[in-house]
Amino acid sequence: MKRIKIIGLVIIMTAAFKFVNAQDVPMPAPAQKEAITLQGGRLHVGNGLVIEKSTIIFESGKIIGASNFNSNTKGRVIDVSGKDIYPGLIATSSELGLVEIEAVRSTRDVNEVGLINSNVRASIAYNTDSRTTPTVRFNGVLTSQVTPNSGRISGTSSVMQMDAWNWEDALMKDDGVWIDFPNLFSYTGWWAEPGSFEKNKEYDNQLNELKSFLLESKAYCEKKDPLPINLKYGAMRGVFSGAMNLYIRAGGIKEMKSAISMCEELGIKPVLVGADDAYLMADELASKKISVILDKCHSLPSRTDDDIQQNYKTPTILQKAGVLFCISISGSWQTRNLAFEAGTAAAFGLTKEEALATITSNPAKILKMDNKIGTIEIGKNATLLVCEGDIMDMRTNKIEFAFIEGREISLGNKQLDLFHKFAAKYEIK
Fold first, then answer.
1. What is the SS3 string spanning 329-365?
2. Fewer CB near the last or first residue (10 Å), C or N of the chain?
């Protein structure tokens, strides 16, 4: 009897925790019911074009007007004079909605058991009730590519719009399969103690296993009705048809060159992720039209003898070489600083509009979704935001309005509530 009471108490407490957690997450906005006009703001289109005084109209979730200031308005008119209008920021290589509390295993759903998990879809694990998501939206990230992260082949990433009741409503598309390319060297030791780099003795075996899987997958996918059914091979079909990307996590120049060579043999054009040494082979990446997702520009370089500011300078090197690249922050809550990483790239050589493109139009192109998101143009989704200052400058970044597919979303979040609570307690103005 006592045991039954304890179990009942645990169930009640769990339900209560879920209820409280849900209350911390703003309710998803309803579908856009009337046209909205943003009048007078400085429009940053996302492709390099800036309109100093603009008129933007969107209806039924789509942009139907984006031009210089004029008197043609429709529906609800919002005066945004003196403010800046940006496309919604796009977070690539993200764990948003998959990780709630990094130190609590039961709240992490980013890793799958096993080495080959191409059939795993990140979308079905996406948590729309995450407390983290509203804190990231507050800084302008309105679309995220949620990405699995374990094994040799981690699984399939999914592009999600970040205001929905459930993962089905949030899902925009499953966009690509992720590979952790074998490293030539392995690090001994752990984060709290010094270690050393040693040659990976299993490198050749790991590379051969990866190549074998890809070759077998390609042969399987070329068959019209392959039997027996193999879900792991079948999940690669979009990669070989070109409908989906193949994302390869690789940092060193030798690993990146090896990954590109392997993909050329298979007739695949990969997207390199992490790419610490991309600046050393920028011309090759440009000539082969290999896209790059740069990870964590706010970090130290991978080598002790590199320029300590190398990660800040790499975006400019890639831009000058003509490489299609974007900036990302792998992780969950850290993604709220995405705009500021682009701002740092602007401080080290990119123009402000080029830096903006690395978190708007460029990721949209890499995700093959530039027909819907990434820029503020007629016919595209009305996923955009209005900011009081420069979105890439933490001193002036203050977002006032945010819209996802025309729906005005709440910018409320747990951290903002706590700020207001204690500002009132200590009479901070």
1. CCCCHHHHHHHHHHHHHHHCCCCHHHHHHCCCHHHHH
2. C
Closest by CA position to 296, among listed 87, 94, 47: 94
Kindly report the pTM of this predicted structure: 0.92
HSE-CB at 368 with a 13 A cutoff on CA atoms is 13
Query: Euclidean distance between the first and final Cα of the chain, in Å?
Result: 55
Question: pLDDT by residue (tens digit) across 140-174?
Answer: 999 999 999 989 999 999 999 999 999 999 999 99
Any idea which fold 89-373 has? TIM Barrel (3.20.20)
Beta strands in 162-284 (DSSP E): 171-180, 185-188, 196-199, 245-250, 271-274
| Interhelix angle 338-347/310-321, nearest 10 degrees | 80
* Residue (of 90, 276, 73) closest to 175 by Cα position: 90
Residue type, 29: A
In this structure, what are the phi and psi dihedrals at residue 79, rounded to the nearest 5 degrees?
A: -80, 115
- pLDDT surpasses 70 at 4: no
Domain limits, the chain: 25-88+375-412, 89-373
